[in-house]
Amino acid sequence: MRKLILVPFLLTLMVFSGFGQRKIVNLPDIPGYVTLKCDFHIHTIFSDGNIWPTYRLTEAYRDGLDAIAITDHIEYTPHKSYVPVDQNAAWKLTEAAAKESNIILVHGAEITRSMPPGHINALFITDAEALRKDSVWDVVGEAVKQGAFIQWNHPGWKAQQPDGIPRMYDLHKRLIAKGWINGIEYFNEEEYYPLVFTFCEQYNLALMGNSDIHGVISEKYTKPDYTNRPMTLVLAKEKTAESLKEAMFAGRTLVYFGNMLVGREQYAKPFFDQCISIGKPFYEDGKNVYLEITNNSDLPFYLVNGVSDAPKSVTLAANSVTRVVLSKKIKTPLVYDVKNVITGENKVLKVTLSY
Amino acid sequence: MRKLILVPFLLTLMVFSGFGQRKIVNLPDIPGYVTLKCDFHIHTIFSDGNIWPTYRLTEAYRDGLDAIAITDHIEYTPHKSYVPVDQNAAWKLTEAAAKESNIILVHGAEITRSMPPGHINALFITDAEALRKDSVWDVVGEAVKQGAFIQWNHPGWKAQQPDGIPRMYDLHKRLIAKGWINGIEYFNEEEYYPLVFTFCEQYNLALMGNSDIHGVISEKYTKPDYTNRPMTLVLAKEKTAESLKEAMFAGRTLVYFGNMLVGREQYAKPFFDQCISIGKPFYEDGKNVYLEITNNSDLPFYLVNGVSDAPKSVTLAANSVTRVVLSKKIKTPLVYDVKNVITGENKVLKVTLSY
Amino acid sequence: MRKLILVPFLLTLMVFSGFGQRKIVNLPDIPGYVTLKCDFHIHTIFSDGNIWPTYRLTEAYRDGLDAIAITDHIEYTPHKSYVPVDQNAAWKLTEAAAKESNIILVHGAEITRSMPPGHINALFITDAEALRKDSVWDVVGEAVKQGAFIQWNHPGWKAQQPDGIPRMYDLHKRLIAKGWINGIEYFNEEEYYPLVFTFCEQYNLALMGNSDIHGVISEKYTKPDYTNRPMTLVLAKEKTAESLKEAMFAGRTLVYFGNMLVGREQYAKPFFDQCISIGKPFYEDGKNVYLEITNNSDLPFYLVNGVSDAPKSVTLAANSVTRVVLSKKIKTPLVYDVKNVITGENKVLKVTLSY
Amino acid sequence: MRKLILVPFLLTLMVFSGFGQRKIVNLPDIPGYVTLKCDFHIHTIFSDGNIWPTYRLTEAYRDGLDAIAITDHIEYTPHKSYVPVDQNAAWKLTEAAAKESNIILVHGAEITRSMPPGHINALFITDAEALRKDSVWDVVGEAVKQGAFIQWNHPGWKAQQPDGIPRMYDLHKRLIAKGWINGIEYFNEEEYYPLVFTFCEQYNLALMGNSDIHGVISEKYTKPDYTNRPMTLVLAKEKTAESLKEAMFAGRTLVYFGNMLVGREQYAKPFFDQCISIGKPFYEDGKNVYLEITNNSDLPFYLVNGVSDAPKSVTLAANSVTRVVLSKKIKTPLVYDVKNVITGENKVLKVTLSY
To answer: Are A27 and A56 within 8 A, CB to CB?
Structure first.
């Protein structure tokens, strides 16, 4: 019989008084490392962004990030008639609040040149004003002198690379030879560049993934396909600026966007293993065994290319339990390709499910 | 500089082939027990519901439930001109699928009388057809003979109790005296009855919370205030029908709906403790210490009535990290009332935060 | 300066007392006709659906439909062990409520055969029980005798047509020759069959689009790509059962699903014209003229293949105003293909924008 | 029978090339006037906002507004260490884009004083730099000299009026006496001040409603209770800056927020009439007449206090059709209070439904 009348509900929203609130990005640590969620490419009104620096921190806090870099353009400052150029302004405005928010604020800037070398982020610098120099060699040299990690940004950006295919110019090779490029963006904004994986393997560089946000994060990353900004997941020994930097120079990164996780197998494999747990069979009948696989992460996993009597494909939805029905006739181990965990330009993670 | 063109995204939805998918209800186990998420009050077309029994199982699976009971009315079968009365039909139609879905299917029925005693669910019965008897004493007696757990449903339902206030009639007391009422619904559909807590304490009964769904679960429980149906959380020794029943008779339940958790302090307190972890201070300045509290559960906690220099209130949002800024002058322990964890008719959980 | 404190908001949800509420499907009438939104393919628990008939009416009401047919399978009744077969049951259970809800209830049934002819809906019948006959000819003959409009369902359904391509068998041609097929589904559930347009043109049949729903409408049609079920838009002289039937036999239909509108140009063209209004230029500068186009409908329009100096493409989002900036150099009329208004198997609507 | 396989869907998002897209705010014109949707209280980084001026225009365009004023604080410029004070900067940066977007950009500024007079917006000024003066009388006088409409902002803001109750100080009365206050905010941000209606009636001023936004509009106004910012609806003879100003000085405004519409009966009544249409009865039986009321607006209407046999309350949901079942015994006209259309401090709109 249906209810006719509701008892009114007491529960109301409460005012937050002096407290922040921060989403838990459900991506696990791997043995030996903490997984720091980072965005190393962010703009503010101090170059061509629409947002005041402290609001970038608010966004990062809400998004559950551990580290960000604000990286306004050095050479492109279209607001300068109203806002005097001060390449360190965003840093100075956010430094104190970052500390109080448990966010590692990486001092950065975007060196903004035509291709080659294109756009380059200098991260972990100490003075962005010193990066106003004509020669690319001088400016990157100065950044390196300040201790910078050098990231080559969006190498396949069509404004600079009309076919959308990243190209390693001689200039890049010479910078790399000196240790003056340390990472390349695989993800940028809503784009990705498969070839970057090969570059990173060839030259032993870190894979990077960042938002390059100019507008409002919450307006951009609320699509069915992606509700988070791209992130660089840095596998650091602990959550400190020093550990972060050490891990980046050591190339211990995975990059994450939408439904994709990209990175070297040595990191992607234990990451997958931390996300997934396979339960004991909860039931069997004459033909089949029934079990559940729990994916305790924000990332779904699309397992494909199952062999013989095993299910052809298994989708392990994010933060969900998936029931798997296995024929008792299966003799071979359950081997799958994880379609959305990319471990090379043309390679995906291969996993074996044991139960 | 803004991106002009998107590289099209490869990721597409994949077809599920023979696999189910099940939400993780993020409510923790407590030491010594697994927390089984249950709904013991569900209708189908076999009484006055709109849904075929197997679809009830689909809904429960999707919602991440561990156990359900389909409890069609014994005495109220408005579809009988088209659907012959068979009180065991829903059970027979779902039994096999429940096993294959890792859901404990509790055989049940709703004894549907005017007040007193009102509506009563018989759970863990073996034959609902045997419950068609005139006398309340005969029908409850038969259910008890079958081993039933007897639940008194929606005692404050206005159709039967016009002022909305549950009333313990003499008949109820006599049933209880014989052990023939074992639990009472505190939550039903979208209602709740604070007085039920007192009844349960007085007579040592289990608190129950269920949906009493007649229509479509996903259409009913997608409000801003509640995205889940009401649930009885049974603290069982393991996930089996026997353990479930033992725990219910032992009164080891918490009930959950919207932002509210209701139950005896001995269970609510360890439940809260499992949800919350308090980090070490990550920063301090001259005046304050900064730390983070992680609420790793689907339930927010509203802490109020902070004393002296401590924050007056702290909202620990669900699945979130909350920053807390504490004055260094605080001498007293951080004691709070958890406004939405109800441990008595007029009582809420009191907690002390240690850091 | 930021506000500190909220004045609490008075507005609360009100209880609906004896009133229904019905969405406005914002799809316009065209000159001379009202556009009736219809779904002629719906299942209930009386064949293999999960929903009780009256709830189908609730769904249709909420969705703003003008007419529905419940069309349970004649030959496929898997619930028969518990629900005796009565092909008119759903009709009898919903007839009165339909009248009270301003929904035209079309008496229907699905003749469920292997291919050919596959599945066929008989609409506007008077007695579905009389359709239990062995021979296809007998059953369709009986339906026609009752005055039925005959709809060939999902001709490319892979369970019956493994390559997914609809095929006109000899049996279909012979039925059509007798006037015993009057329409074909172009949309069914989430599928569509471009070839059906050609069949309908060749044999002068009505294009049909329906949900074929077995589960819950609100759970199925809440995807980013489609928030409504497929609909047959019938261009009737007035909202009556007789006008509806007349229009269907006359082939005055458009079919609508997701972002697609499909139908003969003679109906699609005035429909587009009713959706769109082009404003006078609101501004001009040395180079350009600025104007706004209002799309006052739930359907977006994707205009492509603009020529010479005109914009290459214009997206007129649903229920939105779109600004168009036109170079003053444009000499040619603004001619576009409306990519998502399909007027033939390989043809889309061509429009000229006049301002 | 269920479908097994989906034909993949062609429909993809299209790139917007040089075109804008603008929501239709579905609030009707009234006879003789166009209803301009306006927000006259907006901040940017040039005072204490977080957003660059041109993005305010983007937000307004998306929200379907006809007119906005950017009104940065004159006396409160916390960003001045990095952004030199230029009170006209936001105006100069947005003027051209506003013209190209069909948005009337009202040149404005917020005179920011302690109470009394509190905060005051000067609208339709020509030079905000000239408003930097010590004396309130001098600054308001200068604004008036420039032709300004003077709006008293958030008179019940607790930072200045701790009990939250607006108070008309002697200074306000003297300003009003000179014609130097022309409107008062009834809605500001998420607050509202019932007493403002009385002030506006007493002194013949315009009711105003604005966002006072400092952060991101789309993040603030996406609550269950309100999906739009507060708006001043100006009933202008045509959509021009001159007509807008004329209507404001004439007090032809309604204010809108959440589910509330507030304004003088002479405007609220025809507005309601334009939203609602009552259909002819579509059905009757022995006891009742059935008809439909269409609410073709974004505003729901809560009709209460029905008398005798009429329904006690009728909720006309936004953009919906509501069925009304009327007893044939009803003799009296259908008179209701529209609970959410406020026509005085303690008065709501009274309507008679004729069918």
So the answer is: no
- What does the pLDDT look like over C151-183, one tens digit per residue? 999 999 999 999 999 999 999 999 999 999 999
Distant-in-sequence, close-in-space partners of D296: CB < 8 Å, separation ≥ 6: C24, D26, D28, D275, D276, D277, D319
The predicted model scores a pTM of 0.94
Largest CA distance in chain D: 80
CA distance linking residue C26 with residue C22, whole number of Å: 12
- Which tens digits make up the pLDDT trace of B133-157? 999 999 999 999 999 999 999 999 9
Distance CA A61, CA B290 (A): 14
A14 touches chain C (CB under 8 A): no
Angle ∠(B69,B70,B72) on CA atoms, nearest 5: 140
DSSP state of B280: P
The Cα–Cα gap between A291 and C348 comes to 49
DSSP H or E segment with residue C184: strand C183-188
Number of Cα atoms under 13 Å in the Cβ half of residue D2: 9
Do D296 and D328 touch, CB atoms closer than 8 A? no
CA B54 to chain centre: 21
C-alpha to C-alpha distance for A115 and A123, rounded to whole angstroms: 20
Q: Band of the pLDDT at A13, cuts 50, 70, 90?
A: very low
**Nearest alpha-carbon partner for D77 in D129, D146, D38:** D129
Residues D48-75, mean pLDDT to the nearest whole number = 97
**For residue D12, what pLDDT is reported?**
30
Q: Are B216 and B49 in contact (CB under 8 A)?
A: no
Q: What's the number of CA atoms in the CB half-sphere (13 Å) around residue D158?
A: 10
Best CA proximity match to D226, nearest among D196, D187, D270:
D187
Q: Which residues from B are below 8 Å from A192, CB to CB?
A: 7
Query: What amino acid is encoded at B6 in this protein?
Result: L
**pLDDT over 60 at A6, yes or no:** no
Q: Indicate the residue type of D218.
A: S
* Integer Cα distance of A253 and B221 in angstroms: 40
Q: Are B125 and B111 in contact (CB under 8 A)?
A: no
Residues C205, C207, C213: CA angle, nearest 5 degrees: 130
Interface pTM, i.e. ipTM: 0.92
Q: Which helix (H) or strand (E) holds A140?
A: helix A136-145
The Cβ of residue C23 has, within 10 Å, a number of other Cβ atoms equal to: 16
CB of A230 within 8 A of CB of A255?
Answer: yes
CA distance linking residue B104 with residue B66, whole number of Å: 6
Q: Looking at CA atoms only, how far is residue D220 from chain C in angstroms?
A: 13
D60 φ, ψ to 5°?
-65, -40
Cβ–Cβ gap D93/A84 under 8 Å = no
- Chain D CB contacts of C76 under 8 Å are 1
d(CA D163, CA C231): 56
Between D46, D55, D218, which is nearest A50 by CB? D55
Q: What is the pLDDT of residues A125-177, one digit of tens each?
A: 999 999 999 999 999 999 999 999 999 999 999 999 999 999 999 999 999 99
Angle between helices A53-62 and A89-100 (to 10 degrees): 30
Interstrand relation of C104-112 and C67-70 (parallel, antiparallel or unpaired):
parallel
- Cβ-contact B16, A286 below 8 angstroms: no
The amino acid occupying position C6 is L
> Does the CB of D311 have a partner CB in chain C at under 8 Å?
yes
Chain D hits for A52, CB-CB cut-off 8 Å, are: 45, 49-51, 79
Percent of chain C with pLDDT strictly greater than 70: 94
Count how many residues are written for chain C: 355
Question: In D221-230, which positions are buried (b, 16+ CB within 10 angstroms) versus exposed (e)?
Answer: beeeebebbb
Cβ atoms within 10 Å of C280's Cβ, excluding its own: 7
A72, A87 contact by CB (below 8 A):
yes
**How far is D157 from C21, CA to CA, in rounded Å?**
38
